[in-house]
Design a protein that fits this description.
Shape: globular
CATH class: Alpha Beta
CATH superfamily: P-loop containing nucleotide triphosphate hydrolases
Distance between the termini: 35 Å
Radius of gyration: 18 Å
Bound molecules: adenosine-5'-diphosphate, magnesium ion
CATH topology: Rossmann fold
């Protein structure tokens, strides 16, 4: 067990509630959900649009805060952290991969990969370019290092975003529909890369709509109307 896990788990979501205030009143988006992920697990999250998948992901990455309950990732209690602490925590411990890549358009591919290293300063400035190039090489993109993102294909941009997610060697990778904007062949290549990363010890939590890909993920969580289900059983405790 590494320093990142608490009771053997890297991710703890305990009785998490998330409400939003809408024009017609309170919207209950996560209804006291539980999720525990061990180090080295590959977990898929499925469910209809609007069921609460991205909200769940945002609770785990600290991009948004729960209304109730608690989230612990890599030994850190997220509710105890300020926004600044959360940003730094995320930079070091979580690599986030989005559907639309979110690369900075004015930076080259290799500069995009160096950005999280500059932010977290875990490597000396002189080591960063070499590390970024090694990560681009790992995702098969070394020859695109000095190009701007908009000159790359969708699959190449997503591989650049994966290299960026690995910049600070985080234990946890989180993807919110990371293959959602790719054709099926490209999605397959990216998925193979995710599997490789898990086999090298990363923990991966991935939201996907893709039935075929979900069928290849060893553990699946389903989200319906703000409730998480595993093997058909709700993870929300019944109220007494
Ligand atoms: P999914 O990712 O499963 O498609 P989301 O987690 O994005 O679903 O959204 C779940 C529900 O929460 C939706 O009804 C959505 O409209 C609502 N929601 C999400 N974010 C907000 C917000 N910032 N303000 C109000 N409602 C929101
Ligand atoms: Mg979503």
């Amino acid at each position: 067990m590494s320093e990142n896990s608490t009771n053997g788990h890297l991710v703890h979501v305990d009785n998490v509630i998330k409400n939003f205030q809408g024009p017609a009143g309170t919207i209950h988006v996560l209804k006291s959900v539980n999720l525990h992920v061990r180090e080295g697990e590959f977990v898929g999250v499925r469910g209809p649009s609007g069921s609460g998948k991205s909200t769940l992901i945002n609770m785990i990455t600290g991009i948004d805060r729960p209304t109730g309950g608690s989230v612990n990732v890599a030994g850190h209690k997220l509710e105890k952290m300020s926004e600044n602490e959360l940003a730094r925590f995320r930079g070091k411990h979580i690599g986030v991969i989005f559907q639309f890549f979110q690369l900075l358009p004015t930076l080259t591919t290799v500069e995009n990969v160096m950005l999280p290293m500059d932010f977290c300063r875990m490597w000396k400035p002189s080591e960063r370019p070499e590390r970024a190039m090694a990560l681009l090489d790992q995702v098969g993109l070394a020859d695109q290092a000095h190009k701007l993102p908009n000159t790359l294909s969708g699959g190449q941009q997503q591989r650049a975003a994966i290299a960026r997610a690995l910049a600070n060697d985080p234990p946890l990778l989180v993807g919110d529909e990371p293959t959602g904007n790719l054709d099926s062949k490209t999605a397959d290549t990216v998925f193979t890369l995710f599997n490789d990363l898990v086999s090298k010890g990363k923990t991966f939590l991935m939201v996907t709509h893709d039935k075929e890909l979900a069928g290849r993920i060893p553990r699946i969580i389903e989200v319906y109307d703000g409730i998480l289900y595993e093997d058909g059983k709700a993870t929300t405790e019944q109220k007494q």
